Amino acid sequence: MRTASPWRSAARTDTGKVRARNEDAFLDHPQQGLWVVADGMGGHQGGDIASQLIVASLAELPIQDDFDERLTSIRQCLHWLNRRLSQELTVTPERRNSIMGSTVVALLVEGQRAACIWAGDSRCYLWRSQRLYQLSKDHSLQQQLIAEQNMSVEKARAHPDAHALTRAIGAAEQLTLEVLELEVYPGDTFLLCSDGLYNELSRDALGNALSLTAPHLALERLFDGALRGAARDNLTAVVIRQ
């Protein structure tokens, strides 16, 4: 029997001001210590199907007591989904040349242990001791140009394909997930979000919102700020706090 979770969380998604449909999805399960944001690949058929499938599949995983076993099962589930999306679901007569895919960022917490698992450019941030840390590193061409060619952020951002993803669930037969494990401290606040949210907000704006003690108030401030901008993409965020 699992005890009550010491974590409080709030989640929200919005279509934004331009898109006709919302291809983002989220999972908000504080009792299971699991939170997820998935951003269906815009412009591709079935982006919303892919993101919802990821969230639904992770929600159905059995709850194990061992943290390492749970982390392994999340990774196995995402690899299975990648095979299913890249092979089975994509190859249909009406979808012969399209990709059905999605980014994913998941946070698993048990006691003092946490792990962030991701593929794509949805992000995980940590607000600790009045400082903002970006735990995930984008799997995008922009980030690749910065890391591998020592290009400045400004120059990389100006590249016409800057936002092209280098990894995503369903984008290729082989998937490489990235995992970051860390120790949790009292007062830690996590933010999972799609690029539609963080692209509209400065780091200061993110930090100011996460400094609020109640997750639902932090979420409200994040969305108020983002929706004052162009909001050209879907926006999704989950705020998690002890």
Description:
31% of the residues lie in helices and 25% in strands. It is α+β, with helices and mostly antiparallel strands. The protein has a domain at 25-138 and 167-196: 4-Layer Sandwich (Phosphatase 2c, domain 1), CATH 3.60.40. The strands form two sheets. Strands 1-10-9-6-7 form a five-stranded antiparallel sheet. Strand 4 (104-110) and strand 5 form a beta hairpin. Helix 1 (47-59) packs antiparallel against helix 2 (67-89) and helix 6 packs antiparallel against helix 7 (215-227). The longest helix is centred in the N-terminal third of the chain and has 23 residues, at 67-89. It is globular and about 50 Å long.
What is the element layout, followed by pairings?
Blueprint (H helix, E strand, L loop, with lengths): L7 E7 L9 E6 L4 E6 L7 H13 L7 H23 L14 E7 L2 E7 L3 E6 L2 E4 L6 H9 L3 H6 L19 E6 L5 E5 L1 H4 L4 H8 L4 H13 L7 E7 L1
Antiparallel strand pairs: 1-10, 2-3, 3-4, 4-5, 5-8, 6-7, 6-9, 9-10
Helix pairs in contact: 1-2, 6-7
